[in-house]
Amino acid sequence: MLATLLADQSWLEQLAISHPGAAEILSKSPEEQRSAGYFHTLREICQQPATWIKTAEQMINSEAELRDCVEGIQALVLTGSGSSEFAGDCVLPAIKRERRTVAEVIGGGTLLTYGADSLPPGRPALVVSLARSGDSPESVGAVSRLMDENRNIRHLVLTCNRDGRLADVYRDETGVHVIALDDATNDRSLVMTSSFTNLVLAARSLGLIGLASEYRSTCAALSAIASQLLRLHFGTIASLGAANFRRAVYLGTGPGMGAARESALKMLEMTAGSVATLCDSYLGFRHGPMSFAHQDTLIVCFLSSDPLLRAYEADLLQELNDKELGLLKVMVGENVPRDLVRSSDVVIECPGLSAVGDYDSSVIHVMVGQLLAFFRCLEEGLHPDSPSEDGVINRVVQSFKLHVRANAGDNTLFGNGRKSD
Q: Within a domain: residue 163?
């Protein structure tokens, strides 16, 4: 995808006029990008439209395996750690609606510490583990504990790393299905970008089993919207990254709340904590968290396309205007209401989102969050590929002891040491 963008000289010329700094970033050679510390992250963000098409085809080709996983289940759980858990938040509302079964997102740490007791009632149950590397200690430990408890639980592993522990250890286990996405989705950067959105769309297929045409067309539509987002708003978001903010708020509704969680984490990770972040729903923001919105606060608003939900969102946005809260608002969606746009605000208009619908818009919202964090990282003088210069966080969470009950054996050590999936 990046090569395609670079080959389009007209797009680069337009970008050079609107934002010379962004054009310079794109035009540097791979060697210069590596030296500047953003080679992997830039490619992984920009490759998303192309990788989504490939992931869709892979999941369609895995339909028979997916049918085996969901046949007769009474409960479904999406699990992961860090960003991978938030990927579950993005897709949960659609799966609940389409599968018409009990469905929840439960963090890997909760499964590790509480085991099957943390799962909703109803058996057989399907636990879907989402993971970039599959090497996080709690990811492997949670599956191991649930399998040891053996309470009529099936497992589906969706991972970007076919060589990770989660894929390797359980590949041949009865009751476990492993689907490893294309290696290009296994982001080399510290933070998850294309791995995140591809895991969202891979999990999304669980709600559309037997509806290959609908699933394929949805992913194609998202790919087109994302491509246009990069072409039209790359420079705009680059300018936002240089704005004078020290705090950032991300607001979303339903699946957009998952996008808000992930975007807040991206900004926190990629600025090494120098930008404080908060995420909330529009209705929840009034109940205390609004006090976070100072004059140095960027407020990123992921807008719903549903008229009823948009009405509630608009009420909150008007309140922010009336109270003159925040440095500026970034409003992301289609048909953004111009009467709510202050002179300092920025609109990221995304044609096609209304047709796609809220259940599938989160990957587009997340891309805005990724780009904003990327450019803020550069503004902070950090390297997007490895922004945590002091090693506080790593690509995979460092190994830690997985404790067991005293009468169940000794402490066990899992993982190979490195950031949360």
A: yes
**3 state DSSP class of 274:** coil
Alpha helices in 209-281 (DSSP H): 212-241, 255-270
Residue 409 has pLDDT above 50, yes or no: no
359 CA to centre of own chain: 14
Q: Which residues contact 405 (CB under 8 A, 6 or more apart)?
A: none
Rounded Cα gap, residues 170 and 177, in angstroms: 8
Report the residue count for the chain: 421
Q: Determine, yes or no, domain membership for 394.
A: no
Burial 64-93 (b: 16+ CB within 10 A, else e): eebeebbeebebbbbbbbbbbbbbbbbbbb
Residue 254, helix vs strand vs coil: coil
Gyration radius (Cα) of the chain, Å: 21
Q: What's the structural domain count of the chain?
A: 2
pLDDT tens digits for range 51-75: 999 999 999 999 999 999 999 999 9
Q: Give residue 410's pLDDT band: very low, low, confident or very high (50, 70, 90).
A: very low
Percent of the chain at pLDDT > 90 equals: 77
Q: Which of 153, 379, 419 is nearest to 248 (CA)?
A: 379
Whole-number pLDDT of residue 10 = 61
For 167-223, how does the pLDDT look when each residue is reduced to its tens digit (9 = 90+)?
888 888 888 999 999 999 999 999 999 999 999 999 999 999 999 999 999 999 999
Question: How far apart (Å, rounded) are the C-alpha atoms in residues 218 and 220?
Answer: 5
CA distance linking residue 137 with residue 277, whole number of Å? 26
Residue 312 belongs to domain spanning: 216-379
Going by DSSP bridges, is the β-strand pair 401-402/247-251 parallel, antiparallel, or unpaired? unpaired
- The residue assigned the tokens 């934002």 is 19
220 and 357 in contact (C-beta within 8 Å)?
A: no
* Separation of alpha carbons 168 and 172, rounded Å: 8
Which residues are paired to 130 by β-bridges? 158
Task: Supply 213's token pair.
Answer: 């045409």
- The reply to whether 65 and 204 lie within a common domain is yes
203 and 233 part of one domain? no
